[in-house]
Design goal:
CATH architecture of the largest domain: Alpha-Beta Horseshoe
Family: Belongs to the RLP family.
Keywords: Brassinosteroid signaling pathway, Cell membrane, Glycoprotein, Leucine-rich repeat, Membrane, Repeat, Signal, Transmembrane, Transmembrane helix
CATH superfamily of the largest domain: Ribonuclease Inhibitor
Radius of gyration: 40 Å
Membrane topology: Single-pass type I membrane protein
Helix content: 10-25%
Main location: membrane
Number of helices: 9
Subcellular location: Cell membrane
Length: 734
C-alpha cells in the first residue's frame, strides 16, 4: 500500500513539474516576443512578474494553466514576431491586428497551432504570399487577413479549413487565384465571406453547379470589377442570406424573379453595375429589408408600380437608393408611407414630406433638378444632412427650412438660388456645422445674425453677388477659435444600420469637396476641416482685425472682391492656416511680417493687389515663388527679381552725409590754400621767418595729418547726431 502511495505521489510531483516547466516555457516565449517588438503606446507595460496569466492581452486556461488566448489587437505593435511564439502550443485565440510588422511574410509556425479557432492578422502590414501551412488549422473557425500587402497565389489551403465559419480576405491581391470560388465551395460551415476589393480574376460566377456553403449569411464581393458575369443562379439557393453586396462587380443582365427567395435579406446592394430591366415584383417578399441600393444601373420601368408591390412588406426600410437609373413615375403617392426611412437618394426632388418622417439624411446632389426647393421640406424636423448641390434649383430659400433646427450639414452650392441670404439661418439653424451656398445668385449683404452660428466650422458663400463690407461676424464664430472643440458629426454623416450579431452592414458616408490651395480637394473627415470662402463676390471695405480670432482656420479665401485697406497684422494669429488667398482685390500697404509666423501655410496668393514694400522673409514665406505676388508693381525682394531700394530714412541720412562731406572738404581746401598763401608771402618777405618755418617742419612732421584726422572725426560725430532721435541729439559731446 505504501508503495502505491509513493508511486502516486511521485507521478503527481512529476506531473506538476511538467506543468510548471511548460508554464515557464510559455512565459519565456512571451518575454522573447515582447523583446523583439516595439510597443510605442506602452500597451505591454504590464508584462512583468512571474505569472504571465495576469498580463494584458493574455488569457490562461483555468483547468490547465496554459496560455490559450493572446489578444493584442489594436495595440499598434511594431517589429518582428519572434519564433519563440511557437511555444504557445495550446493557443486557441490569436489576434495581432492593427499592427505594423514591416511587410514580412506571415510566420509559417502559426500553422502549427492545431488548437487555434480564431486568427486575426488584419491590417497588420504583412506581405508576400500566404504560407500553405495555414491550411493545417483544421479547427479554425474565424480567419481575418484583410487589409495587408498579401498576395494569394492559390486558394487550395483555404479548402482545407473545413471548420471555417468566417473568412475575410478583403483588400488583398487575389488576381492569381483562379480557383477561389471552387475552394470556398469546400467550406460547408461558412457563414460570412468578405472578399471586397480583392482584385478577383475574371470569373464566371455561374460555373458552380452545386453549392455547399448553404448556411452563408453574408456574401460581400463588392469592388471586384473583373467578375463580368450575370447574377449567378446559385445565390438564390442561399436561403439564410441576410446581406448581399455585389456592388461594382461588372454584373450585367436582369435581376431575376428568384430574388424573392432570399426572404432573410436585410441588406441588398447591387449598385454600380450594368443591370437592366425592371425591379422584379418578387422583391415584395423581402419584408426584412432595411437597406436597398440599386443605384447607378440601367434599371427602367415605372417606380409607382414597383412601389405598390414593395410597400405592403417593406415597412422597415431605412435606406433607399435608386439614383442614376432610368426609372420614372410619381413618388408622392407612396413615399409618405415609408415611416422608417432614414436615408433617401432618388435623384428626384419630391414635395410630399410629412411631419412624422424620421429622415436624417437627404442627398439629391449632382442631378439636373429644376424648380424651387419645396416648402414641405420644413416638416422634416429630424433632418441632419441636406444635400441639394449641383442642380438647377432656383428661387428663394423656403422659410420653412428654419424649422429643421437639428440641421448640421446644409449644402446648396452650384444652383441658381437667389435673393438675400436669410437672417433666419443664424436665428433658427444654430446647430449648423457646414454651410455652403456657394456658386448661386445670392445678393445683398452678409447678415450679422450669422454670428450666432457658434458651431459653424465650414462656410462657403463664394461665387455669388454679395456686396457690402466684410462684416465682423467672422470673429464671433467660436468653433473657428483655436482650442474650440471639434464638432464631430460623423455619427450622423456616417449613418450605420445594424444587422444580425450587431455587425454593421451599411454605412452612409459623406465627403467634402472644397477649393483650397488653388485646386479642388476632397476631404472624408470634413468635420475636422475649418474653412471660410467668400471669394468671387462684390465685397468692399477692409479685412476686419477680428479675423485674428478665428485662429483655428485651415483655409481662408477672400479673393476676387473689392476689398481695400491693408492686410491686418492679426492675420498672423491664424496658426493653423494652410491656405490663404487674398488675390484680385485692392489691398495696399506692406505685407505684415506676422505672416512669417504661419508655420503651417503651404499656399499663399496675394497677387493682383496694390501692395508695396519689401516682401517679408522667414519660415513658410521662404518656400513661395513669385507667382504668389504677381501684379503688385511696388513689391520688391525675394522671390521677385525687383531689388528693394533703401528706404527714405536711409536715403535722407545718405544725402546728409554726402552734403557734410562736400562742405567739409571744401572748407579744408580753402583753409589749406589760404594758409599756404600766407606762409608763402611771409617766407618770401623775411629771412627769419624762413628759418622758423624749417625748424617747425623738422620738429612737427605729422601736424597737418592730425589736423585732418580731427576734422574727419568731427564730421563723423556730426553725421551720427543727425541720425539720433531729437531728444538725444544734444547729449553727445566730443
Amino acid at each position: 500500500m505504501g508503495l502505491v502511495v509513493k508511486k502516486v505521489l511521485t507521478a503527481l510531483a512529476l506531473w506538476c513539474l511538467i506543468i510548471n516547466t511548460r508554464e515557464i516555457a510559455e512565459r519565456d516565449a512571451l518575454v522573447a516576443f515582447n523583446a523583439s517588438i516595439n510597443d510605442p503606446h506602452g500597451k505591454l507595460s504590464s508584462w512583468r512578474g512571474e505569472n504571465c496569466c495576469n498580463w494584458s492581452g493574455v488569457r490562461c486556461s483555468k483547468k490547465t494553466g496554459h496560455v490559450i488566448q493572446l489578444d493584442l489587437g489594436e495595440y499598434s505593435l511594431e517589429g518582428e514576431i519572434n519564433p519563440s511564439l511557437a511555444g504557445l502550443t495550446n493557443l486557441v485565440y490569436l489576434n495581432l491586428s492593427q499592427s505594423d510588422f514591416g511587410g514580412v511574410r506571415i510566420p509559417e509556425f502559426i500553422g502549427s497551432f492545431n488548437m487555434l479557432t480564431h486568427l486575426d492578422l488584419s491590417s497588420a502590414h504583412f506581405g508576400g504570399s500566404i504560407p500553405p501551412q495555414l491550411g493545417n488549422l483544421s479547427r479554425l473557425q474565424y480567419l481575418d487577413l484583410s487589409s495587408s500587402q498579401i498576395t494569394v497565389d492559390n486558394f487550395h489551403w483555404v479548402s482545407e479549413l473545413s471548420s471555417l465559419r468566417y473568412l475575410d480576405l478583403s483588400c488583398l491581391n487575389l488576381a492569381a487565384s483562379l480557383d477561389w470560388l471552387q475552394a470556398v465551395n469546400m467550406l460547408p460551415l461558412l457563414q460570412v465571406l468578405h472578399l471586397n476589393d480583392a482584385s478577383l480574376p475574371f470569373t464566371n460566377l455561374n460555373n458552380l453547379p452545386h453549392v455547399n456553403f448553404t448556411t452563408l449569411k453574408i456574401l460581400d464581393l463588392k469592388s471586384n470589377t473583373n467578375l463580368n458575369s450575370s447574377l449567378p443562379s446559385w445565390i438564390w439557393n442561399l436561403s439564410s442570406l441576410s446581406e448581399l453586396d455585389l456592388s461594382s462587380c461588372g454584373l450585367s443582365g436582369k435581376i431575376p424573379d428568384e430574388l424573392g427567395k432570399l426572404t432573410s435579406l436585410k441588406f441588398l446592394a447591387l449598385a454600380d453595375n450594368k443591370l437592366k430591366g425592371q425591379i422584379p415584383r418578387s422583391a415584395n417578399r423581402l419584408c426584412k429589408l432595411v437597406n436597398l441600393d440599386l443605384s447607378r444601373n440601367l434599371l427602367s420601368g415605372d417606380i409607382t408600380e414597383t412601389a405598390k408591390s414593395l410597400l405592403p412588406c417593406m415597412k422597415g426600410l431605412q435606406i433607399l437608393d435608386l439614383a442614376d437609373n432610368k426609372l420614372k413615375g410619381n413618388i408622392s403617392g407612396w413615399l409618405e408611407q415609408m415611416e422608417s426611412l432614414r436615408v433617401l437618394d432618388l435623384r428626384e426632388l419630391p414635395n410630399c414630406w410629412h411631419k412624422d418622417s424620421d429622415l436624417y439624411i437627404i442627398d439629391f446632389s449632382s442631378n439636373n433638378f429644376w424648380g424651387q426647393i419645396p416648402s414641405t421640406i420644413g416638416s422634416l424636423s429630424s433632418l441632419v444632412t441636406l444635400h441639394l448641390s449641383k442642380n438647377n434649383l432656383s428661387g428663394l430659400l423656403p422659410t420653412s427650412l428654419q424649422s429643421c433646427n437639428r440641421l448640421m450639414f446644409l449644402d446648396l452650392e452650384e444652383n441658381n438660388l437667389s435673393g438675400n441670404i436669410p437672417k433666419w439661418i443664424g436665428d433658427g439653424l444654430q446647430n449648423l456645422v457646414f454651410l455652403s451656398l456657394g456658386s448661386n445668385q445670392f445678393s445683398g449683404e452678409i447678415p450679422e445674425e450669422l454670428s450666432q452660428l457658434h458651431a459653424l466650422q465650414y462656410l462657403d458663400f463664394g461665387n455669388n453677388k454679395l456686396s457690402g463690407p466684410v462684416t465682423h461676424f467672422l470673429g464671433n464664430l467660436t468653433a473657428l477659435h483655436l482650442g474650440s472643440p471639434v464638432w464631430d458629426t460623423s455619427p450622423f454623416i456616417q449613418f450605420m444600420v445594424y444587422g444580425v450579431g450587431g455587425a454593421y452592414f451599411s454605412v452612409y458616408t459623406d465627403t467634402l469637396e472644397v477649393k483650397m490651395k488653388g485646386m479642388m480637394l476632397i476631404f472624408r473627415e470634413y468635420y475636422r476641416f475649418k474653412s471660410v470662402d467668400l471669394s468671387a463676390n462684390q465685397l468692399t471695405g477692409e479685412i476686419p482685425s477680428e479675423i485674428g480670432f478665428v485662429s483655428a482656420l485651415s483655409s481662408l479665401n477672400l479673393s476676387r472682391n473689392h476689398i481695400g485697406g491693408s492686410i491686418p497684422d492679426e492675420i498672423g494669429n491664424l496658426s493653423n492656416l494652410e491656405s490663404l488667398d487674398l488675390s484680385w482685390n485692392y489691398l495696399s500697404g506692406s505685407i505684415p511680417q506676422s505672416l512669417a509666423s504661419l508655420t503651417s501655410l503651404s499656399y499663399l496668393n496675394l497677387s493682383y493687389n496694390k501692395l508695396s514694400g519689401k516682401i517679408p522673409w522667414g519660415n513658410q514665406l521662404e518656400t513661395f515663388i513669385g507667382d504668389s505676388y504677381l501684379g503688385n508693381v511696388n513689391l520688391c525682394g525675394h522671390p521677385l527679381s525687383r531689388i528693394c531700394l533703401p528706404d527714405s530714412s536711409k536715403r535722407q541720412r545718405h544725402k546728409l552725409n554726402l552734403h557734410f562731406d562736400i562742405v567739409t572738404y571744401l572748407c579744408m581746401l580753402l583753409g589749406f590754400a589760404s594758409g599756404f598763401a600766407i606762409v608763402l608771402i611771409i617766407l618770401i618777405s623775411s629771412a627769419a621767418a624762413r628759418k622758423a618755418y624749417f625748424e617747425f617742419t623738422d620738429n612737427k612732421p605729422n601736424k597737418l595729418q592730425k589736423v585732418g584726422l580731427k576734422l574727419h572725426l568731427n564730421r563723423a560725430l556730426a553725421a551720427r547726431n543727425l541720425s539720433m532721435p531729437t531728444k538725444s541729439q544734444n547729449s553727445l559731446t566730443c
